[in-house]
Amino acid sequence: MTSDELEDGQYYLMMYNNNYYANSTRTDDYEPQLDAQVSQALTDEEEESYVYFYLVDENAGTYALEWSFDVPYSSIVSSVQLLEDNYVVNCGVAKTFCEYDPSGELIRSFVYDSSFQGYRVMKNDFSGFWFK
């Protein structure tokens, strides 16, 4: 998805949706209305997180979810990066990072064993950085 064909004032916004809800700072009895798929578990192999693409139209003052794809569930410490045509995704709690093709199909996935979660994952070829 690119913004090349859009009108001025329109663009795509990509974000990682953890699909997690927590509210540990409120002391009252507030209970929000949550969609059925929203998890309240820090870890849950049955749940999924998502990469979302919203079309934002600043002229009309609107936004709409245009497209999404599922990624491993990670309640916190997660990220998504667009690199050329692929998406690099970090699912910190799942201790997994993945690369997806432009249609959201998994290309490869890496799982690591650690006592800490990876906070961000970025892919770079270091062209013109330290090496020639």
Sequence-ordered SSE layout with sheet pairings:
Layout: E1 10-17, E2 48-57, E3 62-72, E4 78-83, E5 86-91, E6 96-100, E7 106-111
Summed up:
The chain is mainly beta and about 130 residues long. The protein contains no helices and seven strands. The strands form two sheets. It has a four-stranded antiparallel β-sheet, with no helix packed on it. The protein has a three-stranded antiparallel β-sheet with strand order 1-2-3, with no helix packed on it.
Explain what you see:
- By secondary structure, the chain is mainly beta.
- 0% of the residues lie in helices and 39% in strands.
- It is built from no helices and 7 strands.
- The strands form 2 sheets. A 4-stranded antiparallel β-sheet has the order 4-5-6-7, with no helix packed on it.
- The model has no long low-confidence stretch (mean pLDDT 84).
Low-confidence runs: none
Multimerization status: single chain
β-strand number? 7
Give the amount of beta strand, in percent.
35-45%
Order of helices and strands: EEEEEEE
Task: Determine the number of helices (DSSP H or I, runs of at least 4 residues).
Answer: 0
Shape verdict: globular
Structural class: mainly beta
Helix content: under 10%
Largest sheet, described in full? 4 strands, antiparallel
Q: Could you give the order of strands across the largest sheet? A: 4-5-6-7
The whole-angstrom Rg is: 17 Å
Could you tell me the mean pLDDT? 84
Give the termini distance in whole angstroms.
Answer: 31 Å
